[in-house]
Amino acid sequence: MKTYIKSKQYLFRPIMVCMMIIISLGLNAQTVLKKEQFQPFPFGAIKPAGWIKEQMQKDMNGFVGHLDSLVPTLIYDPIYSEGRLQKHSKAKDLGNLKSGDAEGDEQYKWWNSETQSNWWDGYIRNAFLLNDTVAIAKVKKYVKYILQTQDADGYIGIYDSSLRYHFNAENGELWAKATLYRGLLAYYEVTNDTTVWNALLKAIDNVMTNYPVNASEPFKVGEGFNGGVAHGLTFTDVLDKMYQITPDKKYREYALFLYTNFSKNYSSEKDVQLYNILDTSYSIKYHGVHTYEHLRPLLIAAYSNGNKDLQKALNIYIARIKRATTITGGAIGDEWIGGRAADETNVGYEYCSLQELMDSYLLLLQKTGNAQFAEAAENIFFNAAQGSRDPEHSCIAYLKTDNSFEMMGTKNGEKEEGRNQTRYKYSPAHQDVAVCCNPNAGRITPYFIQSSWFKEGADTIVAAVLAPTVLNTTIKNTKLSIEEVTDYPYQNSFIFKIHTEKELVFTLKIKKPDWALSINTIEKYTIENGYIIIHRLFAENDKVTISFNTTVMVKETAHKEKYFQYGALIYAKQIAAKEISGKVYKNGFEDKMYAPLNYTHFQFIAGSKPVYKDGTIKVTLKNSITKQPEAGLLIPFGRTVLRQVTF
Fold first, then answer.
1. Distance (Å) of CA 423 to CA 395, 397, 419
2. CA 440-425-388 angle, 5° bins
3. Residue 477: exposed, middle, or buried by beta-carbon count in 10 A (0-12, 13-18, 19+)?
4. How far apart are CA 580 and CA 493, in angstroms?
5. Could you tell me the pTM of the whole model?
6. 504-511 and 460-463 as β-strands: parallel, antiparallel, unpaired?
7. Which of 159, 280, 317, 381 is the most exposed, having the fewest neighbouring CB atoms within 10 Å of its CB?
8. Mean pLDDT (the chain, rounded)
């Protein structure tokens, strides 16, 4: 999540405007919580199955499970313990080129906290979801080590006592905590380890004591670059999870306080500030990852207060992000949005952005119940995210475009003045840029699985995001297991195998995909708000079989180009490429670049009839060089490296 061009644009806002924002949010009034539609299951209740489980196992055998041995000085930097930052700490050599970075060295001091904590967060989740006993033992050792760093007052973080909570410039105080505590919360939910829970209670109380609600300025740190401070707004992730577990309103009140304080102070990441959102002439323009992760603090604030400006702002912000999003779900993140609209050829997206925006959509799904956010999350995961993985090697792209004509470091061969761009390649670590995307690549699948099922009310189970998974829960004091057997999205049929301790009446809701033309099932059902609703008595060993019919859909981009979709998947014409090896981290882990074997592009032919068969789409396209029609074979976007997806 590292940034690299300092924005100097800043419009002074009168103090009166900031005061109006605070008053409009009613911070001194009693917190009024908006009702949430779905209730999340604790981490570990939903396990992967099928192809997703196989992919996770490959990742744990690959860069996700071995990143600590690829960049050990970053992962095992004792920044939370004896290596805590102090007044005279110097920026570390992270092994990156820093080409074009203009923010100064201060950000490099806290980077390792993000790298290691995001990696551990993903590693913890993968270990438990896969029941990997070796990895779980490693996780337990790590958690024990982290708890030993806690001070008597509860502090767990990266700063010496002389610095913590007292900043007038860039810092990573809240950000280092957010990345660490998210992983610890997952560990607590899956183990019910009260030692971890008590440590987290003390650590979070330590934050709230030192940055007292409505009586402190955690985001007032001057007017220099403060990307780490801005990342710290996602401490609301921790607060939201604490509220879901407890539920104690003080966590929601504090989340609202953080968003309001962020909105009223200067930030080098301004897109989510309420003043800018409500400005109808404003376009999102800053660092993509910040912009997309900040959707969550805005959402949490909107559910912590009934203020109409927050509800209005949430809808505006979602619409602005949609404008910046490509057909595969990749939102602009290369790395600054710059007021641009999505472009499938000329604008790239960062893997970090994919994880953060997907996570934001899944939180929107949980709180609103709106199936459109499930569709958006599926689009990111099944298309853009899969399409940013190397299908043959354990590595991912830092930056990627939908139409990917080469991956030689630059964006489709484009040269950037004054920059040695290396982000458009595949790597198990991307250390020459920043080790941020690879840790997030370890988080994306567990986070996707975590929100595939929800509970609604006392007796309704919701299959909100379709994927091969297994849910284990209790309903009406009866143990219930539902195994979702499917190859989705590569096929569109499902068997929900249901096992209970005894006969049980409950409601099963299944998201109806927006591309589904008809439904095949023997079940009696109704459809409401994008969900198929089945209410009946289920036997101890029962099942629901359902499938969806669709056809090849020829759609149009904002730039009037055509693309092809079948079911949840976007299809692309693969471009033959020469594989070129780069930096070797260790045996089996190396950078990969891809040069095209030809530069032929194709054009859409009006009236052509695409045909779907056995996971491919056959369609006639026009060769842009010969101007002659040719038979084209399209495959799922996520299984390509170089490709043309719009015609």
1. 13, 7, 11
2. 50
3. exposed
4. 39
5. 0.95
6. parallel
7. 280
8. 94
Nearest C-alpha neighbor of 468 from the set 480, 451, 485, 445: 485
Helix (H, G, I), strand (E, B), or coil: what is residue 515?
coil
Domains of the chain with bracketed CATH = 62-93+104-268 (no CATH), 454-549 (2.60.420), 555-644 (no CATH)
How big is the CA angle at 345 (ends 341 and 346), to the nearest 5 degrees? 60
Cross-strand pairs, 544: 496
Q: Is 486 helix (H, G, I), strand (E, B) or coil?
A: coil
Residues 371-383: tens digit of each pLDDT: 999 999 999 999 9
Q: Which residue matches tokens 């792209």?
A: 397
CA-CA distance, 207 to 47, in Å (whole number)?
A: 33
What residues have CB less than 8 Å from 49, skipping those under 6 apart? 468, 469, 470, 483, 484, 485
Q: Is 619 exposed, middle or buried (0-12, 13-18, 19+ CB in 10 A)?
A: buried
Distant-in-sequence contacts of 453-458, Cβ < 8 A, 24+ apart: 453/41, 453/45, 453/46, 453/482, 454/38, 454/39, 454/40, 454/41, 454/365, 454/366, 455/38, 455/39, 455/40, 455/41, 456/37, 456/38, 456/39, 456/369, 456/509
Task: Please tell me the predicted confidence (pLDDT) of residue 195.
Answer: 98
- Give per-residue pLDDT as tens, 577-632: 999 999 999 999 999 999 999 999 999 999 999 999 999 999 999 999 999 999 99
Q: What local confidence, expressed as pLDDT, does residue 1 receive? A: 52
The pair of structure tokens assigned to 307 is 């203020």
| Pair 491, 569: CB distance under 8 Å | no
Q: Could you report the per-residue pLDDT of 40-64, keeping only the tens digit for each? A: 999 999 999 999 999 999 999 999 9
DSSP codes, 42-110:
PTTSEEE-HHHHHHHHHHHHTHHHHHHHHSHHHHT--TTTTT-B-TT------S---TT--S-SHHHHH
Structure tokens at 514: 């927006």
Question: Which residues are bridge partners to 170 per DSSP?
Answer: none
